[in-house]
Specification:
mainly beta
């Protein structure tokens, strides 16, 4: 027979084990084969977008696409940015006027306009309780 303490621990343990978390798979397409690494960042709110990411991931490029996985994310709205770091300097190289010189992309294939970078809402998607795959076309 279980003690009351053991029973409570099992009940609370099962409740916390069932807390929802899902994996986000990000497929980066149009990479330049054997061209350095791809670097991706995930953002969870508008105020942090393009400033402070929740998590980052990196992988070498060996073909025309790269798959990255962000594990155990709570349900919510997210946006992902990515670029191919062709020269290995760990930053997105840009021209003097700020135009990216390396392949880059964002979730929803969001693009900036004449007024600058896209907003979080342009790139945001909802991750629920189930795993999700997002595809980003690098350009």
């Amino acid at each position: 027979m279980l003690s009351r303490f053991t029973y409570m621990a099992l009940v609370f343990g099962m409740a916390s084990a069932s807390a929802s978390a899902a994996d986000l798979t990000v497929v980066l397409e149009n990479t330049i084969p054997n061209g350095g690494n791809v670097r991706a960042a995930i953002y969870g709110q508008s105020a942090d977008f393009l400033k402070k990411s929740l998590r980052g991931a990196e992988s070498p490029v060996n073909g025309n696409s790269v798959t990255l996985v962000f594990k155990d994310l709570p349900a919510g709205d997210y946006a992902v940015t990515a670029f191919q770091d062709s020269n290995g300097n760990k930053k997105l190289d840009t021209s003097i006027v700020g135009i990216p010189l390396e392949p880059y992309g964002m979730s929803n294939d969001a693009r900036g306009g004449l007024d600058g970078a896209p907003k979080f809402s342009d790139a945001a998607f909802h991750l629920g309780d189930s795993d999700l795959t997002v595809r980003i076309q690098l350009k």
